[in-house]
């Protein structure tokens, strides 16, 4: 879906009617969410569960952060498995993602990116997915999204916020972009990571630290792409905030001659793919897109316009860089160690 403009923070003196009209629905949404959390009985996995989530609709950078942290942990010997709902896919799971077999239509786009780094499970029931990962040898489960999920106990949750977008107009769905109030989210997280540079960053960090929750700053950084330097490109993206992708391309000195925005997790049609190819040809430009968008074209039928677009398009790899990574990593390792101590104590008591 595309974010409605009224979800954004209003300009000075601006009066918006839609958030007020939708306020009763937002009140019901918030009440239902709190009720669900109050009466939930989450299951606990026998291995540490780390959740990287957000509290707003739209892209915040949580998947690049998950990929960065997972790569580090895997390099240190962790048998890390990702756990995702598989948004946009038809499979309900628990199912381990097979890059040679599954498409975005099966498991969603983000799990395809995660599976390139570590074993990845999609499961509508996160507790069942975690159990399947443990049976498959996982020593640690990392959830990409799921902060609001009530079926599984998390040992350490990281709240990711986009600095530029902040909390939008500060209202709950559908009146605004919030899945829950910030104070409710902060009551369940052990760290906050604010990605990017924006007007909201300092205030958000201060709110976290006022509750003794460490707040870290991070940026999204693309891997070097010298082939894009000066290259005329048609940039297209179906992500939460396409402008972030375009800004990254400008940092790489690509010559953006045109852009095409699509809704988040958009499944490209043959007509759309053909239109992009024709427009790129007419502009004498190279189509460039995000890793997530390319993943949705991964298993396009041979000879189709989608397959041609996949083969013609270039992409860039983006990861999150945390300013004080040493402190963040110490915090993360401490939480993993404590989670294992708690698990060992429960096992001893049960035995």
From TrEMBL:
Q: Which domain of life is it from?
A: Bacteria
Q: Under which main EC class is this enzyme filed?
A: transferase
Residue positions annotated to bind ATP are 56-63
Pathway the protein acts in: Glycolipid biosynthesis; lipid IV(A) biosynthesis; lipid IV(A) from (3R)-3-hydroxytetradecanoyl-[acyl-carrier-protein] and UDP-N-acetyl-alpha-D-glucosamine: step 6/6
Give any single GO term for biological process: lipopolysaccharide core region biosynthetic process
Note the InterPro entries from the entry: LpxK, P-loop_NTPase
What Gene Ontology molecular-function terms does this entry list? ATP binding; lipid-A 4'-kinase activity
* This protein's UniProt keywords: ATP-binding, Kinase, Lipid A biosynthesis, Lipid biosynthesis, Lipid metabolism, Nucleotide-binding, Transferase
What catalytic activity does the UniProt entry give for this protein?
Answer: a lipid A disaccharide + ATP = a lipid IVA + ADP + H(+)
> What cellular-component terms does GO give this entry?
plasma membrane
Q: Which HAMAP family match?
A: LpxK (MF_00409)
Record-stated family:
Belongs to the LpxK family.
Task: Provide the function of this protein.
Answer: Transfers the gamma-phosphate of ATP to the 4'-position of a tetraacyldisaccharide 1-phosphate intermediate (termed DS-1-P) to form tetraacyldisaccharide 1,4'-bis-phosphate (lipid IVA).
Name assigned to this protein: Tetraacyldisaccharide 4'-kinase
Please tell me the species this chain comes from. Parvibaculum sedimenti
Phylogenetic lineage: Bacteria, Pseudomonadati, Pseudomonadota, Alphaproteobacteria, Hyphomicrobiales
């Amino acid at each position: 879906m595309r974010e409605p403009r009224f979800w954004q923070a209003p300009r000075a003196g601006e009066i918006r009617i839609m958030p007020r009209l939708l306020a009763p629905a937002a009140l019901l949404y918030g009440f239902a969410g709190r009720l669900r959390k109050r009466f939930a009985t989450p299951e606990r996995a026998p291995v540490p569960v780390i959740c990287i989530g957000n509290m707003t609709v739209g892209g915040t950078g949580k998947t690049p952060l998950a990929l960065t942290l997972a790569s580090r942990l895997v390099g240190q010997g962790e048998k890390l498995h990702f756990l995702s709902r598989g948004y946009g896919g038809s499979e309900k799971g628990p199912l381990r993602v097979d890059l040679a077999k599954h498409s975005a239509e099966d498991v969603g786009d983000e799990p395809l990116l995660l599976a390139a780094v570590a074993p990845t499970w999609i499961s509508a029931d996160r507790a069942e997915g975690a159990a399947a990962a443990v049976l498959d040898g996982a020593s640690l489960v990392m959830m990409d999204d799921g902060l609001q999920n009530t079926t599984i106990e998390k040992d350490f949750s990281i709240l990711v916020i986009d600095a530029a977008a902040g909390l939008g107009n500060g209202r709950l769905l559908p009146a605004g972009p919030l899945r829950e109030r910030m104070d409710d989210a902060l009551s369940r997280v052990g760290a906050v990571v604010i990605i990017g540079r924006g007007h909201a960053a300092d205030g958000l960090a201060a709110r976290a630290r006022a509750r003794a929750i460490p707040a870290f700053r991070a940026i999204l950084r693309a891997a070097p792409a010298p082939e894009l330097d000066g290259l005329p490109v048609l940039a297209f993206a179906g992500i939460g905030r396409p402008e972030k992708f375009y800004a990254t391309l400008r940092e790489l000195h690509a010559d953006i001659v045109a852009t095409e925005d699509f809704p988040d997790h958009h499944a490209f049609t043959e007509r759309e793919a053909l239109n992009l190819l024709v427009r790129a040809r007419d502009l004498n430009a190279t189509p460039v897109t995000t890793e997530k968008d390319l993943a949705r074209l991964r298993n396009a039928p041979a000879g189709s316009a989608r397959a041609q677009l996949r083969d013609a398009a270039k992409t860039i790899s983006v990861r999150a860089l945390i300013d004080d990574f040493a402190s963040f990593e110490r915090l993360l390792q401490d939480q993993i160690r404590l989670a294992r101590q708690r698990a060992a104590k429960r096992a001893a008591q049960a035995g």
